[in-house]
Amino acid sequence: MKIRARLGISADGYITTPSGWPAHSADPAFVSGQSHGIREFLETCEAALMGRTTFEPALSNNRWPWPDLNVFVLGSQRPAGTPDHVVTDSDPVQLLEKVRAANRGGDVHLIGGPRTIETYRALGALDSIELVVLPILFGDGMRLTPSLSTEAGLTFERERALPGGSVEIVYAVDKAARAILGHGADWVPASQRAAGA
Q1: Which of 40, 105, 116, 149 has a CA-to-CA distance to 47 between 20 and 30 Å?
Q2: What's the first-to-final CA gap in the chain, in angstroms?
Q3: Could you give the CA distance from residue 130 to residue 132 in angstroms, rounded to a whole number?
Q4: Dihedral of the CA atoms 167, 131, 20, 83 (nearest 10)?
């Protein structure tokens, strides 16, 4: 199992539009039905892991965005209308344990903003960051850093051109370069903490 973050990013470095929408939603190629590689990416995934802010808009969607994935949500409360099969927890470590316990060998799509990505990177759980660089300039919006620590060690793995002028760039995340965030580098599973290990 690998935990993989995948984000669209404008050529000038923004992961959202100035109005807060995900960057890829402003790309004419994406709007016209080109997938930017997301379909192939999701074929390797069995679960989606995200923060509550990313999850809540899905509750009012006409179509459930993750029909073939187990869904895990990090949040202090379970939003009203959350389907029974969605697993929620306010503790990122406990939620990660639930993701691992349910895993059958497929990868996990880490969805969300930089704070959610940094939370799991700091725990040493994030395996890769996959950026789809869009041929668009926004001039404003949310950046990947500073919420995602610049301490993250990235190793280039591969790149490929996508339809419409976008480029996919995949980086492995150096798990030794972890920030101290809550549990930080000294994190141990809750089951071991409870047992006094």
Answers
A1: 149
A2: 25
A3: 7
A4: 120
Measured between alpha carbons, how far is 142 from 148 in angstroms, rounded to an integer?
Answer: 11
Element (H, E) at 55: helix 52-55
Q: How many CB atoms lie within 10 A of CB 33?
A: 7
Length of the chain: 197
Per DSSP bridges, beta strands 128-134 and 3-10 are parallel
Topology (CATH) of 3-194: Dihydrofolate Reductase, subunit A (3.40.430)
Report the distance separating Cα 13 and Cα 100, nearest Å. Answer: 32
The rounded distance, in Å, linking the Cα atoms of 93 and 111 is 16
Which sequence spans correspond to the domains of the chain? 3-194
* 10 contacts: CB under 8 Å, gap ≥ 6: 23, 26, 133, 134, 136, 137, 138, 141
pLDDT profile of the chain (197 residues), mean per 10: 95 93 86 77 95 89 89 93 95 97 97 92 95 95 88 93 92 70 40 40
Is the peptide bond preceding residue 135 cis, with omega within 30 degrees of 0? no
